[in-house]
Design brief:
Blueprint: H1 2-31, H2 35-40, H3 43-50, H4 52-73, E1 77-78, E2 89-92, H5 96-105, E3 111-113, E4 116-120, H6 127-153
Helix pairs in contact: 4-6
Length: about 150
């Protein structure tokens, strides 16, 4: 009957929501584990507990946030922007020598690439980490603009 179908639908939807909520809480908890706990366990154990799909979704959301910040700051991304074409590694179109040194001074680990600066996310990174990276990039842009203005005055 229609009522049985509707009840089945509601039960399935509720169960799916509970599972999703549980997974989200688990990922959030694992992302906030103390470093000592992470050192005691193999990465593969943690990934299998969280689930590869959940890690992938999390890392993709970090990339989405990074791309938003890059667009706001007018910084190009070398490589694909679409979710289906990218993984956890992003190359920013920034002069490697200048920016590598700047990131290092600000305790940000990146790798210089021939086409720019390589940024790589992992399951332990958070959206706050991406926002902090964007703030550091924004500060460097402001410092560079200030330096150019002073040089023009001289």
């Amino acid at each position: 009957s229609v009522l049985d179908g509707f009840i089945s639908y509601l039960l399935a939807r509720t169960a799916g929501g509970v599972v999703l909520d549980t997974r989200v809480r688990l990922v959030d908890r694992l992302l906030r584990l103390p470093v000592a706990e992470l050192d005691r366990r193999r990465a593969g154990d943690l990934i299998s507990r969280v689930g590869v799909r959940n890690v992938e979704k999390h890392v993709q959301s970090l990339g989405d946030r990074l791309i938003e910040h890059l667009d706001e700051q007018g910084i190009a991304l070398v490589g694909p922007r679409e979710r289906g074409g990218r993984a956890h590694i992003y190359v920013l179109d920034l002069p490697a020598a200048e920016w590598s040194e700047y990131f290092s001074r600000n305790q940000v680990r990146v790798s210089p690439e021939r086409d720019g600066i390589r940024v790589s996310f992992a399951m332990f990174n958070t959206l706050d980490d991406v926002d902090q990276l964007a703030d550091i990039m924004r500060r460097h842009g402001a410092e560079a603009a200030s330096t150019r203005a002073v040089e023009r005055m001289d």
